[in-house]
Design brief:
about 20% helix; 2 domains; Alpha-Beta Plaits; 5-stranded mixed sheet; two-stranded antiparallel ribbon; alpha/beta
């Protein structure tokens, strides 16, 4: 059956529970998108939209993921929930009902052939070669050890992922938090992205494949205090869930004035001993 014919059966309307999205409150953060297993919600023109009535089961699994309270459940006339339509919709998106991650992830081609996207391990001896600053002061050594860092460009398989402590950071954090390199980047492999401007679904798939194909030791997520940026936390949490692995997972919220607002341990299914390797979000208490 054609996907469009499945999604457009509007002659079967019944009164039932269905999601309601308040566009005035919605800021387009995208947290609700991965929270909906049926793929019924997408970000369109900067706002969350219900793709089709028959894709929404009305159970409200997405409600708690909206920081703005834009999602509610209402009783109204709507098309019945259709599992076949959900299956066809998810397959049309190319991810399957639960997007089962394969034991051996497929290496996806980098969407850019430029030299700047070439995979590179940056040796410690090179990154620590730093001379004095222009004012005579000593520059803080850079701690970056992998390239590329943009999640869209990063390969799924790379030597710097194996056994690494992974740092997933929102783009803006490094510009806001002055001690980014020393406190958070040192000793970690870095990936950056923007949950508002980039493709969150693509992030989910790639991160899940990276986690599945590498023996990561821990994941730390750095995000800004603005509501839309918390979508990065939801993406990483879902990627860990889809990978089927139990990993120490920590988050740090950074304020727009460069201060640390909060730190949270989101580890699930790990013992205190397992979490010991990633006990401190920063490398010291400073």
């Amino acid at each position: 059956m054609n996907i469009s014919s499945i999604l457009e059966r509007r002659d079967l309307a019944v009164k039932r529970k269905i999601i309601r999205i308040d566009e005035e409150k919605c800021d387009g953060c995208g947290l609700c998108v991965p929270a909906c297993a049926e793929g019924a919600i997408q970000i369109i023109d900067g706002k969350a939209r219900l793709v089709a009535e028959n894709l929404c089961d009305g159970l409200g699994a997405c409600l708690g993921d909206c920081p703005r309270g834009a999602l509610t459940i209402e009783d109204r006339e709507a098309e019945p929930f259709d599992e076949e339509a959900v299956k066809a919709h998810l397959e049309n998106q190319g991810k399957g009902a639960e997007r089962e991650v394969q034991s051996e992830p497929k290496v996806q081609p980098v969407p850019c052939g430029c030299p700047g996207s070439r995979m590179e391990v940056i040796p410690v001896r090179d990154r620590r070669k730093r001379g004095p600053g222009g004012d005579g002061s000593t520059l803080q050594p850079a701690e970056l050890t992998n390239w590329p860092v943009q999640l869209t460009l990063a390969p799924v398989k790379a030597p710097y992922f194996e056994g690494a402590d992974l740092l997933v950071s929102a783009d803006c954090v490094a510009y806001t938090y002055a001690d980014f390199h020393r406190r958070f980047l040192q000793g970690r492999t870095l990936l950056i992205g923007c949950p508002k401007l980039d493709n969150a679904e693509a992030y989910l798939g790639k991160l899940a494949d990276i986690i599945m194909g590498s023996n990561l030791q821990s994941i730390t997520v750095l995000h800004m205090e603005v509501p839309c940026c918390s979508g990065l936390v939801a993406v990483v949490k879902e990627a860990v869930r889809r990978s089927g692995k139990a990993l120490p997972l920590k988050t740090v919220k950074v304020g727009i004035e460069g201060d640390i607002k909060s730190e949270e341990d989101l580890s699930v299914g790990t013992t205190p001993q397992d979490r010991g390797g990633a006990a401190g979000l920063g490398r010291d208490s400073g």
